[in-house]
Amino acid sequence: YAAKAERTVVAHYDPQRDTASRERLRTRQMLRRAIEQDEFEVHYQPQCALGGGAAVGVEALVRWRHPERGLLPPGAFLELVEQAHLMPALTLVVLEQGVQQCAAWRRQGRELTVSVNLSARSLLDPELPGQVDALLRRHALPAAALVLEVTEEMIVTDPVRSLATLDALRALGLGLALDDYGTGYASLRYLRDLPFDELKIDRSFVQDLGTRAADTAIVASTTELAHALGLRVVAEGVETAAALGLLAELGVDTAQGYHLCRPVPATDLSAWLEARAAAAPPLPAGAQPLE
Ligand code: C2E
Ligand code: MG
Ligand code: MG
Ligand code: MG
């Protein structure tokens, strides 16, 4: 019997799987340590009103200040965080920093909103609305100053539970944005049935705006549809003055992109806001809406 048991164990032992699970454990411990050591920091990218040009909000974008590898973009680690089941923890880190910073800017008289990206897992987390509520109270930030961004892919996973979370968040009085619009399933049912306040047109339609007629048609009709449904429209990935001008003509509400400002640490954003406020006509003449 002993010999048989041993054979069974040997037969079932898979060194590759063992290495993989040990590797996962190591990654999880490394990420946990990074969270505890405050290595994740939030950078901010402004969103500016088209026609006027005032910064009306910022998007919070997480970075990992890695002790050896330097500043890492989310594309380099979000997948790992997700696999390690640490996304709810990271979401709280970003929310905490974003809400605190937004409250600080408001105390300085800057009426900005802060937008924070959620993950699919956060959207299925029944504890999230309560945590967000507590956070807003702790930093005395009005709920209307916070916008949470989700993508269509995140909702598809479990539309019923996602809707429950979105409704609970909405009941707090904060804003909800549909991110990367046009790249996913772009189901009109989501626009009709889910409680969004804002639609963010994906940068793939915005980056080269003005060079392809199709992009102009898509941005124009999406904006018209969103407005008819009572949603604000944000264009992501504005990289050129030409795109900015066209977006204003097409009636898009706000713009976000490298042409205006890259995501930067909070102190740099404060300086950018100051410089912009001091500067004369903030947008080129071509960017003024047509009468
Ligand atoms: P996103 O939410 O769609 O954020 C916009 C991304 O586009 C950011 O990349 C931003 O730096 C980049 N971007 C802004 N303007 C331009 C432009 O003019 N041209 C181009 N080419 N890119 C521009 P980033 O910071 O690397 O973030 C990538 C994605 O990672 C985000 O896409 C979002 O899905 C995710 N992400 C970022 N921060 C968080 C977070 O705190 N939590 C979660 N769950 N996801 C996050
Ligand atoms: Mg986003
Ligand atoms: Mg996006
Ligand atoms: Mg994205």
Please characterize this protein's 3D structure.
The protein is α/β, with parallel strands linked by helices. It is 47% helix and 18% strand. It has an eight-stranded mixed barrel, surrounded by four helices. The longest helix is centred in the first third of the chain and has 22 residues, at 15-36. The chain is globular, with a radius of gyration of 22 Å. Ligand C2E binds at residues 45, 61-62, 73-75, 78, 94, 117-119, 149, 179-180, 203, 236-239, 256-258, 263. Residues 59, 117, 149, 179 line the site of one magnesium ion. This is Bifunctional diguanylate cyclase/phosphodiesterase. Residues 24-277 form the EAL domain.
In short:
The chain is an alpha/beta fold. Helix content is 47%, strand content 18%.
